[in-house]
């Protein structure tokens, strides 16, 4: 599975669209679903560049989680999650981890492994700007993650857009770049966690890709092989460990 991001006008959108400030109204908290199109998020002019990927007025369903202790004057980090399934809802036991580490969650629904890869990539790339419309986001703590095929997608987005995503957690799925990334130096400054399980079918590929990162000069990497775990997301304890590594 390879993505030709260089053929996407989305690259220009990420580099050139203006920053979006958080709304002044009292922010919504807890777990909820939000409907927002590409045009709603980027504006009509910028959204036009993504029209070849999906209709820019098409409503997109987003799963969001904002801890109750979120405070606008304390910018939060952000987890952009790419699900392998129809649902982008946060695992319930991870909610406490986000509260402890001042992190928000956003994931597109209906963006699983059966969806076109360019559309899935676009969802991940515009998700931070969706959240910045409503919340104060710390740009140095914008991370991307995913499970299985979503983990592979996360690894492609994280490296092709290393200036957007400062770290990533690859859960039981990861790909290595097919040619030298144009932002290799930025990748080397970021942080990456490779999560797999003792009984995970992706154990060997995950180990192998972790080692390839190291050989490419990416030093801020962590491999987590969780005893007794199969092909699944890690539990609260190990997810928190991964977050702590990303935060450095």
From the structure above, extract its key features.
about 250 residues; Rossmann fold
Structural class: alpha/beta
Helix content: 25-40%
CATH architectural name: 3-Layer(aba) Sandwich
- What's the Cα radius of gyration? 17 Å
Low-pLDDT regions: 4-24
Percent range for β-strand residues: 15-25%
Overall, the morphology is: globular
Largest sheet: 8 strands, mixed
Order of helices and strands: HEHHEEHEHEHEHEHEH
User: What's the number of domains?
Assistant: 1
- Would you tell me the overall average pLDDT? 92
CATH top level label: Alpha Beta
Number of helices: 9
- For the termini, the CA-CA separation is 31 Å
CATH topology: Rossmann fold
CATH superfamily: Alpha/Beta hydrolase fold, catalytic domain
Written overview of the protein:
- The structure is a single chain.
- The protein is α/β, with parallel strands linked by helices and 248 residues long.
- The chain has one domain (26-247): Rossmann fold, CATH 3.40.50.
- It is built from nine helices and eight strands.
- It has helices at residues 10-16, 38-42, 44-47, 95-101, 117-132, 149-160, 184-189, 203-215, 236-247; strands spanning 30-35, 61-66, 76-82, 103-108, 137-147, 167-171, 191-197, 221-226.
- The chain has an eight-stranded mixed β-sheet with strand order 1-2-4-3-5-6-7-8, sandwiched between helices.
- α4 (95-101) links the parallel β3 and β4 (103-108).
- α4 packs parallel to α9 (236-247).
- The protein is globular and about 45 Å long.
- Residues 4-24 have low confidence and may be disordered.
